[in-house]
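Hey, quick one: can you model this chain's 3D structure?
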Amino acid sequence: MSSEIGDKQSSTTMNRTPKSNQGSSGKKDNRSKLFTLLDKLQLQVSVFVFFVAGVLYWIPSTSSSVGAKFFILQGQNSPNTYLPTKDDGYFVFICIFYIIFTRIFFMNHVFKPFCIHVLKMKGQGARQRFAEQGWALVSYGSSFLWGFKLFYHSPFFNNLDNLYAGYPEQHTMDWEWKTYYLVALANWTAQIFILHVEKKRKDHYEMFAHHIITILLVWGSYVKTFIRIGVFIHMIMDFVDIWLSLAKVLRYCGFSNACDFTFFIFFFSWIALRHGLYNYLLYFTMSRIYDLIGFDACADRPEDPKCQNLEFSISSLVTLLCGLQVIMMFWMFMILKVLYKIMMGANAEDVRSDSEDDDEVEGKQNHKEQQQEEKGNNNEKEEEKEDNEMNNTDSEIDEKSALLKNTENQTAH
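Sure thing. Here's the predicted structure for all 413 residues.
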């Protein structure tokens, strides 16, 4: 009988198999180990770059030759004007990491705590998406206000001919215009870094193509000082993106009706600005730029970098503007799919995954994550209950085994 109890106890122990964690399954992360590591260390890498640049700035032997270029604008031509120069790369480089640092800081220390303590978001994916869109709202809003300020005080505010008239002698940059352009160039370069180190989205390659074209446009228009059209286009793009980011933020907050209303504003502003005004600016550039630019002035200034290969520069500008419009037409098709589903009675939060990545956490997905988390907690409680029952059974078996052993010893005596 003692042997039977031992066999029963052994059989009970053998049948207790650990449960697999099936609730944490998700989309496979196809990033390389290097990109995964960089994603986790974005804040630390940025601080390290700031430290190295600061050391180079304060060391007397490197301050004037290298260190100062990270923090002071280069290419000053007169007290109020600046020229493009290859040394601008230092300023752009430090701005890239400043943007990465600021983004991660706001996401981790402002928006995610807001999700946890105010919105009571439980899903980690939803908190991440809310933080991303919260930062996007801040970024696009700041860029738009800065661009509008430059636009409002520009000579082309009420006369589009001044976009190109007076070129090249009247098209100069002061410190603010130059800083705006270099920060914009740094921002789009940082976006490429972020696009690759963070988890891939469904429209990864479309976004990558958009960023490359945008960088080429910003860099090319900066080198040739076509900065007026550049600021104008940047401003109208930022205005549209503000409404998209706001719609996403409202969605994650659970305001479905406000999200839908904001999405309609985004849709109409997209049509009006990115396909209406943008295409008019493209047509205006193609039809008027040769008449407005002072080719005769360039003939007298062959050494001016603005005038070198001018016709090729204009052709490249028009080609890149057309390429950007092609990508926006693709996104317009995706937006129309979202709008159609909204008109059929669905919320924007139910269908935004059609135009975003598979991991994008929709409003209902946030609820689903909470349900999954609650289910996981219930499974843990059931498993703990089962463990307690098994422990109680083991204890009973041990007690019976000890009692039987004592009985057998007494019988033997």
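One thing worth noting: The chain has 14 helices and two strands.
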